[in-house]
Structures are given as structure tokens and as C-alpha cells.
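Researcher: Next entry in the queue.
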Amino acid sequence: MKRISTLTLWSALLGLLLFTASWTVVPTDGLAGLTASKSTSREPMFAGTRWQIVSYTLAQPIDYDGDGKPDSDLTQFLRPCDLDNSISFEPTGSMAFSSGKLHCNDTSLYSKKSGHWLFSEATKTFRIIEGGTQRISEWKVLEASNSVLKVAVRYPEYPQATVVFITWKRA
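Model: Structure for this entry, 171 residues:
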């Protein structure tokens, strides 16, 4: 029974990592003021490199694993095959996901996923447009350097409204 519960938790966390936010359909005119780095005068620090996740934490702890204790650092629940996945934001505005050297049995779609990104330097807002569907995820960039990218993502229904902090390192 514990194994079924653990598999359910892994599936939920994997879904969050794959989609990286609560997706909603946003019309194209909702993207006003955002441009890919190719169109801006200064390329954002996170563009042109691959990033691997190093931290996945919650602003408000929840009992993620059902042990009765609130969890704020969900990184501990990631498998090694999840931790070696990477995402890249190309200067052209395209992006790609890679499942890394270690493949999880349930992440075959991860390496096939693609999309586009847009960034507003004025608001430090980063939007991910899922390839082919126009579904958009919005991130707030908290830190961006040559070696670290940290964002805050609001999940309105995870399982209660919360903010997730995701930190990547240069792969």
C-alpha cells in the first residue's frame, strides 16, 4: 500500500516538473510587452545554456509524503533520473527539455517536449509557451546569473494555492 502511495506522489511531482506550472490557455494578445531574447538589446543571463534542477521548495510547507510532518523541500523526493534532466533556453526563443543520461521509466515524453520562452526585463517575468498548444506558464525570476537560475512559480491548486521556488544550476 505504501508503494502505491509513493508511486502516486512520484507521478504528481513528475507532472509538476514536466509542466513547471499551472497551465492556462492565453490568447496571443496576452503576450504584449514580452519578447524572446533575440529581440531584446540585452540577452538574459539564463539564455544559451542547459540548466539542471538543484532545488524544488515550497513557500508554505505541506505534508507531501503523508508522514504527518510538513515538507517544504521537495527536492528530497526527486529520483536521480529526475535530477539529471535539463532544460535549455535558446537565444532564439526556443527551448528544449532533455531527460539526461539516467532515464526514468515514466519520463519518455520529457525528452520530446519543446516550446518557446518570452522574457520581460522590466518585470522579470518569464513565460513558457508549450509547443503546439499555446498553453502558458508564468515564472518570476528571482535570481539569474551565469551559474544559477531561480524562479518563483505560483500553483493555484497544488493541492492548495502555494508558491514554488525552483533553482537550477548550469549543466
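Model: The chain has a mean pLDDT of 74.
Researcher: Noted, moving on.
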